[in-house]
């Protein structure tokens, strides 16, 4: 249990005792302002009516009865009946001790859930571009945090590896191979390849027909066509894997469950919905009318599940995927990370899928939308010539820029060391800049801010970690095995200790809302509190008594471990030197 939950248990016990209704709200939160204690219980006001007493009297009754032994040292009633809770130094000290002594920062795991996470999911026709950066790194951070908390995660890379555009690509691909090109070189630049195929599709006589014929052959499982398709898919997945490796994300080939994997289930999805009268023929197509999403005139939304020529759609596949994830994988939660423009699609899919019985009622279906990455001009992020920015190029640039920064610092490190450091800083900066923004809003991509050593950035956090490591190096003490009594005296020690104890709360919030920025904000605040502590509370000065020094080093060690773990959950590496 985290601190908030431990306190809540004790307050809830008292509510029952003072005669509050069983489901009385019990709002207990971290205090957001200094001077209001560390946590606040604000439930007294809401009880005034049912208990027919003044809120302050109720607050007083709660304060008199609540047993916070071992946790808090002082309770105050403020304003109309807020209860400010001041945690005791001993309670916090013991937390700091456990963080240092136990593995996994002494985090107790909640009940484990089966969580299916659909993320990255690029379209194989094209090279991964910056739009997939967000899905990939946000999804990966959430996955890591879920696993850290003991959940059973199934990664699903729902790659766009099927559909009509593949007819065009295959037709072009097979021509190139006939010209004796090796498959890899024919596909060396997916972007170019796609463009060439599209030009031929639009302009070359007979090509479009051949492309369409390829689709039909592909969908009916024609062997030659499938072989070609497999080759194509393999090479493009390998391209994505290169990006994953560079980014340090945990996706592997085993996690690929592309659209094609559902192909043989689509006919059944349609016939089940038709049998229920949910899907109906409409102008040659098969559609579901969604009354719940009717427009102002009362016309229901139209959700197409099969095209007039018999072809299936993105939506059909998502219904099949929902059924597979809920029933076959037994998901408690399904999380899908795509940009916000797909929000309506997933809202409709959930309504239709639930009606069709493609989800167990208890499976929670959560589309996690994200905003766009914008350029300095506030417009969608593009190359100077207006093209889409390839993810691979962006990452290379990040590393190059970080190399320059590292070189400027003149840290006396070898060239090889500088290169390794630059890679960690560069990639970390790009990831953190994205993760630290509220997921749902658009954000402006800015090299200078993300690579800055000041502010809420990866380099700032990486530097805070490195600094602590170097303190331990100087002290000749092992950060990982330090064990000494912790006594919190200074205000800065107490503030840092409490923040350390709140790591789990941040993590749990991040995981339940699928919002990595919550963890980023936490880490940034933690590092900032450390800096204040570091200035006010010397550790290695000669006049610091040994006990005090060790107690402070315990705080520093717990901070380093928490930052390293937190960054690792965000997919960002730390450095012992920089
Ligand atoms: N391939 C899609 C795209 O790039 C994202 C797929 C997301 N997952 C899903 N189940 N639809 O937009």
TrEMBL record:
Keyword presence, Transport: no
Motif placement: 'HIGH' region: 122-132
Residue ranges annotated for the DALR anticodon binding domain, each copy included: 461-578
Entry-linked SMART domains: Arg_tRNA_synt_N (SM01016), DALR_1 (SM00836)
UniProt keyword annotation of Cytoplasm present: yes
Listed GO MF terms: arginine-tRNA ligase activity; ATP binding
GO CC terms in record: cytoplasm
Protein name: Arginine--tRNA ligase
């Amino acid at each position: 249990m985290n601190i908030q939950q431990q306190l809540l248990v004790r307050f809830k016990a008292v509510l029952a005792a003072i005669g509050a209704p069983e489901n009385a709200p019990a709002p207990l939160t971290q205090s957001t302002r200094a001077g209001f204690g560390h946590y606040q219980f604000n439930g007294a006001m809401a009880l005034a009516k049912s208990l027919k007493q003044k809120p302050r009297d109720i607050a007083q009754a709660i304060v008199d009865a609540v047993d916070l032994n071992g946790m808090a040292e002082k309770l105050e009633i403020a304003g109309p009946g807020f209860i400010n809770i001041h945690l005791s130094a001993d309670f916090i000290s013991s937390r700091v001790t456990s963080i240092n002594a136990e593995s996994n920062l002494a985090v107790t795991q909640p009940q484990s859930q089966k969580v299916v996470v659909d993320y990255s999911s690029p379209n194989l026709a094209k090279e991964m571009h910056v739009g997939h950066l967000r899905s990939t790194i946000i999804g990966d951070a959430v996955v890591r945090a879920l696993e850290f908390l003991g959940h059973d995660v199934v990664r699903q890379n729902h790659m766009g590896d099927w559909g009509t555009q593949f007819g065009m690509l295959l037709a072009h691909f097979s021509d190139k191979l006939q010209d004796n090109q090796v498959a890899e070189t024919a596909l060396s630049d997916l972007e170019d390849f796609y463009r060439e195929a599209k030009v031929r599709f639009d302009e070359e006589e007979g090509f479009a027909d051949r492309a369409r014929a390829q689709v039909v052959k592909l969908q009916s499982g024609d062997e030659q066509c499938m072989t070609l398709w497999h080759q194509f898919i393999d090479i493009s997945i390998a391209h994505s894997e290169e990006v994953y490796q560079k980014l340090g994300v945990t996706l592997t080939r085993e996690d690929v469950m592309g659209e094609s994997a559902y192909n043989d289930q689509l006919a059944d999805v349609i016939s089940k919905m038709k049998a229920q009268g949910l899907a109906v023929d409409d102008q040659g197509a098969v559609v579901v009318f969604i009354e719940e999403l009717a427009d102002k005139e009362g016309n229901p939304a139209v959700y197409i599940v099969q095209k007039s020529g018999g072809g299936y759609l993105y939506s059909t596949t998502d219904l099949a995927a929902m059924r597979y994830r809920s029933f076959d994988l037994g998901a408690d939660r399904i999380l899908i990370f795509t940009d916000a423009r797909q929000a309506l699609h997933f809202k409709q899919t959930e309504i239709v899928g639930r009606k069709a019985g493609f989800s167990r009622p208890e499976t929670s279906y959560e589309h996690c939308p994200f905003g766009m990455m914008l350029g300095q001009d506030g417009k969608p992020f593009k190359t100077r010539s207006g093209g889409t920015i390839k993810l691979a190029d962006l990452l290379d640039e990040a590393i190059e820029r970080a190399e320059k920064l590292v070189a400027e610092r003149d840290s006396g490190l070898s060239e090889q060391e500088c290169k390794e450091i630059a890679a960690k800083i560069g990639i970390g900066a790009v990831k953190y800049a994205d993760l630290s923004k509220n997921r749902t809003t658009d954000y402006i991509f800015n090299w200078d801010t993300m690579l800055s050593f000041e502010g809420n950035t990866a380099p700032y956090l990486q530097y805070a970690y490195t600094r602590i490591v170097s303190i331990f190096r100087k002290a000749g003490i092992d950060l990982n095995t330090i064990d000494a009594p912790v006594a919190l005296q200074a205000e800065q020690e107490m503030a840092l200790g409490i923040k350390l104890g709140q790591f789990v709360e941040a993590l749990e919030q991040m995981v339940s809302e699928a919002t990595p920025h919550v963890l980023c904000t936490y880490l940034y605040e933690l590092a900032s509190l450390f800096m204040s502590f570091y200035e006010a509370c010397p550790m290695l000065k000669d006049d610091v008594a040994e006990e005090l020094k060790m107690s402070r080093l315990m705080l520093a060690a717990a901070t380093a471990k928490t930052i390293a773990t937190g960054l690792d959950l965000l997919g960002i590496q730390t450095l012992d030197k920089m």
